[in-house]
Write a structure and sequence with these properties.
D-amino Acid Aminotransferase, Chain A, domain 1, binds magnesium ion, binds adenosine-5'-diphosphate, alpha+beta, 25% strand, Rossmann fold, 3 domains, Dna Ligase, domain 1, 22 strands
Length: 495
């Protein structure tokens, strides 16, 4: 049985894993880079080991260093979080060889899932529909052009090793394809050191709908419903919700059955996600399996009542799933907003630096997974995700309203955030009506709407921002100094 888990990650997901371990009485080991001396995950874990310089290649991606820490700290298991080494089958294999329990699928299954083409092949064999495209890897530009003309533009060029929206290019003619082929190759090589490209039909007006799946080491598998993740920028999710407004119970069950088949087709164990695109005509097409805990897992937790990290640990311990498909019931509506440190008006460029003051929202059915605290720093070396704000409601409207209020209460000083954009989206009629497609931002001119909202100040100044502004005003500072003598003055004035 797992007794000590090393978390090979940082940020909010490291904290998320530590929470469950604490609840289960499992000891935790954190690792950290030069950049993360003062990070919360280092303080919250039972032990923490420095593993190198800020650049991921020198720390969070350094397999040998992390293995050394596992062996010297006495950790018997590793949780990889998402990103970094989480989908690296060499690392999973290294853990297997050293008898460290890797909390995730086997290296063999991960290897299959990590290659979008091989995984699609396995799905075709299992009769799970996939997006039409090249029958295999395309070896050069000439072959890609030939296939693109056969299936018809627009097409996507995809690195089979891509992730997080990277390594994908939409091209509409031979010339764009020629340029795109090179940029996808370069991007993939710089991210993962290798490249292999497939061509896929670009499906227009699609929704990204994915299913949480769980399969134990005895072959029992379930799906834990869908998540709609259509609101994206640069092919990466911004806002997710469950249930999807377009999925009825019949569809949920039908696609859910396919998901169970998909997990069997790649002999998947532990938790994973099967991603689909839903075309305008209602057809679902499999795109990939994410062989790890998903960023947006909290919304599934909110509607299922499960602790998915606990489920991961139980499965890694070899326990059978504690429920059958028919035991799982979906309750209510949940939404997640990924609070990124980025400037919406600078094409979502990262915004980094010190965060002197933070107010984290709370309230009934409000959950915020974050590494932020007043005085922390948002590092330029890592992902821009600072917090995941989730709300639950008995109705969609209740969840949406709670989200708007929570966004309004969220105050982050020092960096640009995606919060203003989310307020505009959550208030829009299109969002309320559930008209979700992966081009939502462009289709409904959300950035223009945000500009207008900011001008007409339709977005109320957040209460938390006002409170923080008062706290930082010179008035307050001067009163704090004198308050030791007479605090009745500022009590009267501020409260
Ligand atoms: P999810 O698939 O969990 O919904 P993302 O697609 O945003 O979320 O991926 C999760 C995170 O994993 C990203 O924010 C990114 O940091 C990281 N990531 C995933 N794949 C890659 C990759 N190929 N290269 C670099 N980072 C990646
Ligand atoms: P990643 O590994 O980066 O997550 P995915 O293959 O899951 O890559 O695709 C990410 C996003 O790109 C999808 O959510 C969708 O918005 C878009 N996308 C991917 N494939 C297609 C396609 N064939 N047609 C239209 N959009 C696509
Ligand atoms: Mg994906």
């Amino acid at each position: 049985m797992i007794e000590k888990v090393l978390i090979a990650n940082r940020g909010e997901i490291a904290l998320r894993v530590i929470k469950t371990c604490k609840a289960l009485g499992i000891k935790t080991v954190a690792v950290y880079s030069d950049e993360d001396y003062n990070s919360l995950h280092v303080k919250k874990a039972d032990d923490a080991y420095h593993i190198g310089e800020a650049a991921p290649a020198k720390s969070y991606l350094n397999q040998q260093k992390i293995l050394d820490v596992m062996l010297s700290s006495g950790a018997d298991a590793v949780h990889p979080g998402y990103g970094f080494l989480s989908e690296n089958d060499d690392f999973a294999n290294l853990c297997e060889k050293n008898k460290i329990n890797f909390i995730g699928p086997s290296s063999k299954s991960m290897n299959l899932c990590g290659d979008k083409m091989e995984c699609k092949d396995a799905m075709l064999k299992a009769k799970v529909p996939t997006v039409p495209g090249s029958p295999g890897l395309v070896k050069d530009v000439e072959e890609a052009i030939k296939i693109a003309n056969e299936i018809g533009y627009p097409v996507l060029l995809k690195s089979v090793f891509g992730g997080g929206g990277r390594g994908i290019r939409l091209v509409t003619n031979d010339k764009e394809l020629t340029d795109g082929f090179k940029s996808v190759t370069d991007e993939s090589i710089s991210a993962v050191g290798k490249s292999a490209i497939i061509v896929e039909k670009f499906l227009e007006k699609t929704r990204h709908i994915e299913y949480q799946m769980a399969r134990d080491k005895h072959g029992n598998a379930v799906h834990i419903f869908e998540r709609e993740c259509s609101i994206q920028r640069r092919n990466q999710k911004l806002i997710e919700q469950t249930p999807s407004p377009i999925v009825d119970q019949e569809t949920r069950d039908r696609i859910g059955d396919l998901v169970v088949k998909a997990s069997e087709a790649v002999d998947y164990t532990n938790l994973g996600t099967a991603e689909f695109l839903r075309a305008d005509n209602g057809e679902f097409y499999f795109i990939e399996i994410n062989a790890r805990l998903q960023v947006e897992h909290p919304i599934t937790e909110l509607v299922s009542g499960l602790d998915l990290v606990k489920l991961q640990i139980d499965i890694a311990n070899g326990e059978p799933l504690p429920f059958k498909q028919s035991d799982l019931k979906m309750n209510g509506y949940a939404i997640e907003c990924r609070i990124n440190a980025e400037d919406t008006f600078l094409d979502f460029a990262p915004s980094t630096g010190p965060v002197p003051e933070v107010t984290i929202p709370a309230g009934p059915s409000v959950r915020c997974d974050t590494y932020l605290y007043s005085g922390c720093t948002v590092s330029p070396f890592y992902d821009s995700l600072m917090a995941k704000l989730c709300t639950w409601g008995q109705t969609f409207e209740e969840s949406r309203t709670r989200m708007l209020n929570a966004l309004n209460d969220f105050y982050i000083e020092g960096v640009e955030t995606s919060i203003p954009l989310y307020k505009t989206i959550l208030k829009s009629e299109e969002y309320k009506r559930g008209e979700l497609t992966t081009d939502f931002l462009k289709r409904f001119d959300m950035i223009e709407k945000l500009k207008k909202d900011l001008k007409t100040e339709k977005i109320e100044k957040s209460e938390a921002a006002v409170a923080a502004a008062i706290l930082h005003s010179e008035y307050f500072q001067s009163r704090v100094q004198s308050s030791t003598q007479d605090n009745s003055i500022w009590k009267n004035k501020i409260i």
